[in-house]
Amino acid sequence: MQHTTEETIEIIGARAHNLKNIDVSIPREKLVVITGLSGSGKSSLAFDTIYAEGQRRYIETFSAYARQFLGGLERPDVDKIDGLSPVIAIEQKTTSKSPRSTVGTITEIYDFLRLLYARGADAYSFNTGEKMVSYSDDQIKQLILEDFNGKRINILAPVVRSRKGHYRELFEQIAKQGFLKVRVNGQIRDLEFGMKVDRYKTHDIEIVIDRMAIDTEEDTDKRLSESIKTAMYHGDDVMMVIEQESQEVRFYSRNLMCPTSGISYPNPEPNNFSFNSPKGACPCCNGLGTVNEINLQKIIPNPKSSIKNGGFAPLGEYKSSWIFKQLEIIAQKYDFKITDAIETIPQEAMDMILYGGNEKFSVVSKVMGITKDYKIDFEGISNFIKNQYDNSDSASIKRWAKEFMDENDCPDCEGTRLRKESLYFKLNGKNIGELVQMDIAELSEWFADLDNHLSEKQKVIAVEVVKEITARLQFLLDVGLNYLSLNRSSKSLSGGEAQRIRLATQIGSQLVGVLYILDEPSIGLHQRDNERLIKSLESLRDIGNSVIVVEHDKDMIERADYVIDIGPKAGRFGGQIISKGTPKELLQEDTITAQYLNGKMKIEVPKTRREGNGKSIKLSGATGNNLKNVSIEIPLGKLVCVTGVSGSGKSTLINETLYPILNAHFFNAVKKPQPYKKIEGLEHIDKVIDIDQSPIGRTPRSNPATYTDVFSEIRSLYTQTPEAMIRGYKPGRFSFNVKGGRCETCEGSGVRTIEMSFLPDVYVECETCMGKRFNRETLEIRYKGKSISDVLNMTVDEAVEFFENIPIIYRKVKTIQDVGLGYITLGQQSTTLSGGEAQRIKLATELSKKDTGNTFYILDEPTTGLHFEDIRVLMDVINVLVEKGNTVLIIEHNLDVVKLADYVIDIGYEGGKGGGEVVAKGTPEEIIKNKKSYTAQFLKKELS
């Protein structure tokens, strides 16, 4: 018995969510795939049972004192798990949304780059471009003895460089230290009592440390050493030498210094190259790379209108307020009226209106002959907006101010995020800012060639660091991320990309004996790159780790060592293990998964492709990110699919260019589209709807019934029952979010939270309402024998039968059933729905609305988290939308979806810099004739 537990992970009695008390043994050090329909309980087994228990056991090893800061983790609902290794979960939701997080910082490659530049790079002067030099005190002494032999010199210590001030205290301080002379702005002067300079001019001040004749014959050695030491002490490691005759100036420094202009850099440390440290970050944008600047066109959208008619957008139309009174005074001073067109107002007055001013003036009244005094104290519209954005604590005010601003690359660092000094440290002619802009494939080649361009000393310093960097770059290449660059912000990554980056980091750590759990790592990955991903997972397994993958991908299932199929259906009809074994054994079974794998069931290719309605939307000249002046035509009334390898520019084209244009046109949205030349054909559609996989609600109070708005109708129905009408109940009585009808003990949540100091919070059923959420009086109102609480606990399938005579409710619940979600309950918490389920609820909400047949739907990878059977159901629903005359545009890699499309646009050829062009377009049958398209190669197999 002992032997088996070491070779397998034994799970006994797992009951998390919908799991039906299952027992399963999973082989260790193998690649195991858990598959099954959406909502069948795959994640419940992998994440909520195995990962949760591994995590809890890890935290149990901490002291009680440390645990109180972590918050406990509750024990998952399972009797026993044996043979569990330390667990690392790589999920999709774990990327940072901070603007400071980049691909380089997540993978830690940037940390190694900073180390490499701090220790091995050459510094150059940003004034002259010369290589910087640094000397020891002995070297400086030798140089002075050689260069100035037989000449008289002054040794000086610079204390003030190009700064304003009167410096009286500084001169007193220098005199107290026993010095007699200073050099001010190039002139040597005696120190006098009370001496000062003009405080409004910039000055250079140096202390004269010593004046001596250099003679190698005589013994000037000791005196020179002392003077150098003193000058370095007062000059902050920099000193100057001036030859008295020719007045030639030389600088010497212990730090890095420009031999001509004398500017010096501090000795480089890794944080001088970090945009998250004040030492390295560009002071203008604080290391963000972008700054928000006022856009005058947004403040004055129409220069022909007047101030009175709302010509200044932030102020709106004329009202009797202090700010308009100030504008009237400015108008008197500069002799114009607030009813004049803004373009005719004198420039001086415009400067004061936009940038403010503070002055008094008098106006002589021509009629009455008296003089009136006015005072203008005006901040300026532009300054006011900027200050509100920079200093306001209110998110809504910041949002208001941002409407009048553009986000531009920082003018100082040009988007590199670093200080000027940091960008003048170079290796092989490149600074660190240029390296992070290269894509990973290009960067990898640069490092391969670096050794030929380094000096012997640099080679010794760089050898270990470069080894680390190239290894990490190789792991990123292995998981198919060759198109990313290190400065790519992590919030712009897709779920699959973020997951593969974490996977690359884990492969890089080379741990052994760990259990990795991955949640659909193939999301957003083209078939071409799938092979690389599977190889990476196999290499994790081969060094001695166990890998569990929750996955629907056919290739991944076929390459697994062991497959566990959970079903038979979803929700409360799932949660059982219906087959387990090797992929070959799985094919013999009679499960839905097996039938799709062995070809008994399949998604049929349509006999004919739709003709569409003959109209189209034309987008031309898109150049965002890596797009190379792309122009596309999207035919309307069809199912259109946009495909292409990962990183080729699909999301840039659709989500960041097309969708913001349409959204701004129909709904006045503010998101700025990526650059494009023009768009035509918007008059052929009447609205755009983007259906993504973000959660439908972030609180446990949100549920499918409230999201689809069917709950409002159900509440109205309950108010019309005879008993409710006698009692005078309104719809609010049947809401669990407001006082009145809900149970006040648990405030309508059905559970009470008991806080335990060391242990996790315990949720117990509310003893007053027994988990029903409402008070006794509300529950007495029944419709067909069911209370409002019973309705929330119904599955969608049950609700369809129950409400079949109430058309307005029936239509909404029927569409939820049609998208394949018959198994969820109406009151299920939104937080427990998977991404695929949330997306289908949004689809159902759209389907249940009365449509015009001219809507443009955009879906980004809707098959995420969906089993073959779920994809079939989803595509049936989408086809219904298209049949009504709507246009559905899907960004997708899944060939089951691509083969159903009426029109395909393939973007490529590669990812990153090699992408951004349209490779092929047309029906799937036309696409497969294209020799250059990667999609065509895989689509051919599906259609044959």
Overview of this structure, please?
This protein is an alpha/beta fold. It has 34 helices and 34 strands. A 6-stranded mixed beta sheet has the order 5-20-21-3-22-23, with helices on both faces. Strands 9-8-10-7-11-12 form a 6-stranded antiparallel beta sheet, with helices on one face. A hairpin with an 8-residue loop joins strand 22 (562-567) and strand 23. Helix 29 (807-818) packs antiparallel against helix 30 (835-848). It is globular. The model is unreliable at 1-5 (pLDDT under 50).
Main attributes?
alpha/beta, 6-stranded antiparallel sheet, 20% strand
Short description:
The chain is an alpha/beta fold and 944 residues long. The two termini are 50 Å apart.
Q: Which class of secondary structure composition applies to the elements? A: alpha/beta
Biggest β-sheet: count, sense, barrel? Answer: 6 strands, mixed
Helix coverage percent of residues?
Answer: 25-40%
Low-pLDDT stretches:
1-5
For the CA atoms, what is the radius of gyration? 36 Å
Overall 3D shape? globular
Question: Helix count?
Answer: 34
Give the distance, in angstroms, between the N- and C-terminal Cα atoms: 50 Å
Mean pLDDT: 90
How many beta-strand elements?
A: 34
**What percent of residues are in strands?**
15-25%
Q: Order of strands across the widest beta sheet?
A: 5-20-21-3-22-23
Give the arrangement of secondary structure elements.
Elements: H1 2-7, E1 8-14, E2 22-27, E3 31-36, H2 42-60, H3 64-70, E4 78-82, E5 87-90, H4 103-107, H5 109-120, E6 122-123, H6 137-147, E7 152-164, H7 168-176, E8 181-184, E9 187-190, E10 202-213, H8 221-234, E11 238-243, E12 249-253, E13 256-257, E14 264-265, E15 290-294, H9 296-299, H10 322-334, H11 347-355, E16 357-364, E17 371-378, H12 381-391, H13 395-402, E18 405-409, E19 425-426, H14 432-437, H15 440-450, H16 456-478, H17 495-509, E20 515-519, H18 527-542, E21 546-550, H19 554-559, E22 562-567, E23 576-581, H20 583-588, H21 592-598, E24 616-622, E25 630-635, E26 639-644, H22 650-667, E27 678-680, E28 687-691, H23 704-707, H24 710-719, H25 722-727, E29 751-754, E30 762-765, H26 776-779, H27 788-792, H28 796-802, H29 807-818, H30 835-848, E31 855-860, H31 868-883, E32 887-891, H32 895-898, E33 903-908, E34 917-922, H33 924-927, H34 934-943
Parallel strand pairs: 3-21, 3-22, 5-20, 20-21, 26-32, 26-33, 28-31, 31-32
Antiparallel strand pairs: 1-2, 1-4, 6-19, 7-10, 7-11, 8-9, 8-10, 11-12, 13-14, 15-18, 16-17, 22-23, 24-25, 24-27, 29-30, 33-34
